[in-house]
Design goal:
globular; 4-stranded antiparallel β-sheet; 346 residues; binds flavin mononucleotide; single chain
């Protein structure tokens, strides 16, 4: 523990609580910006994670097997502050080839106590600036950092992948943001096959495909087929899932992607289906509606090797990471298991 003295720890938790309550009063995007600025002060650190929570993955050892999902740090400037919250890895981005301003505000709203709907429109500084930011941050982070890239042309995605050469431990390809138009083309076997072929020729780090939930009947078969092509082409991992497209009149776009509690059943369905197809050929990262150690355990049982969270951190603050970590240690003790890999050998 960073603050060894118990009194100091309680004081810190109290402060964390107050900050969290104040941030909750702000509109979500302003709260997010203020939260990131506060994190740079490095007041909250949860210290070393016990080796019992270590899991070996394609991006390296992660401990705990809980990472921050893409979208929280879209610029790559906050990776080391976020790492200090106790994550086992951080996914930064998504970055596109050219900088994007994103959609007009409001582009993110709260949905009940445990959900968000966003239509950010992939605002980011462009992959060159993103890579420069990450170059400064990765070593300071001290944990594996993954870069998320997005685009709707194979050529763009390959250029983004190349721009990050030597900078990160892995690259997550985001074809699943509701902001990317033309989902039917992006998830067609032809597009995925060409993407796999082109990325294979320049491969320098593990490549992870981020898929949407299987909820949309018209895309379901295509997504499952894409996962098969991805694994068959020798790629490294799959992350399931991105947000679920829903109508939302409070957003400037009138629709957005739902995240948080209500996404969990969709995530579990997608992870189970992907796990069946992959048969261990690719690793699986689960993301969507994970708030507690029990949720994370369900994701492991469904076939995930590690998990990512976003909405839980955004709505409930850094204590979520600490609680999940402590919950996983408690689970190991209850089951009499030495470590996570013994409990979920997957
Ligand atoms: C405001 C916001 C922005 C996001 N931006 C991205 C993004 O740029 N790239 C991406 O792959 N996923 C993005 N996501 C999706 C998350 O990474 C994650 O897949 C999703 O929110 C489900 O996890 P959760 O329920 O823990 O939030 C974003 C989510 C939110 C709420």
């Amino acid at each position: 523990m960073f603050f060894r003295d118990r009194g100091a720890v309680l004081q810190l938790r109290f402060l964390e609580d107050i900050v969290h309550r104040v941030l909750k009063l702000l509109p979500p995007e302003e709260a997010h910006r203020a939260g990131l600025a506060l994190l740079r002060l490095r007041a909250v650190r949860i210290g070393e994670t016990p080796r019992r929570l270590r899991v070996r993955t394609v991006i390296g050892e992660v401990s705990p097997p809980v990472g921050l999902a893409a979208g929280f740090d879209k610029t790559g400037r906050h990776v080391s502050s976020l790492a200090a919250l106790g994550f086992g890895f951080v996914v930064a981005g998504s970055a596109t080839l050219q900088a994007r301003k994103g959609n007009v505000k409001p582009r993110i709203v709260r949905k009940g106590p445990d959900g968000l709907v966003n239509a950010m429109g992939l605002p980011n500084p462009g992959v060159k600036v993103f890579a420069d930011n990450l170059r400064r941050e990765v070593a300071r982070a001290g944990i594996p950092v993954v870069a998320s890239i997005a685009g709707s042309e194979v050529r763009e995605l390959v250029e983004c992948y190349e721009a990050l050469r030597g900078v990160v431990a892995g690259v997550e390809v985001n074809l699943s943001s509701p902001s990317l138009s033309g989902a039917t083309r992006l998830w067609s076997p032809e597009f995925i096959r060409e993407l796999v072929a082109e990325l294979s020729t320049v491969r320098w780090a593990p490549i992870i495909l981020k898929v949407p939930p299987l909820a949309r009947a018209e895309l379901r078969t295509q997504i499952l087929r894409a996962i098969e092509i991805w694994a068959g082409g020798g790629m490294d991992a799959v992350t399931a899932v991105n947000t679920l497209p829903v109508e939302e009149p409070r957003l400037s776009t009138g629709f957005g992607g739902l995240s948080g509690r209500q996404l969990k059943p969709h995530m579990l369905e997608t992870v189970r289906a992907a796990s069946k197809i992959l048969e261990g050929r690719c690793e699986l990262f689960a993301v969507g509606g994970l708030f507690t150690a029990e949720d994370v355990t369900e994701a492991f049982e469904a076939g995930a090797r590690a998990v990512q969270i976003y909405t839980a951190l955004a709505l409930h603050g850094p204590r979520v990471v600490r609680n999940i970590r402590n919950g996983l240690i408690k689970l190991l003790d209850e089951k009499g298991a030495e470590n996570i890999e013994e409990l979920f050998p997957g």
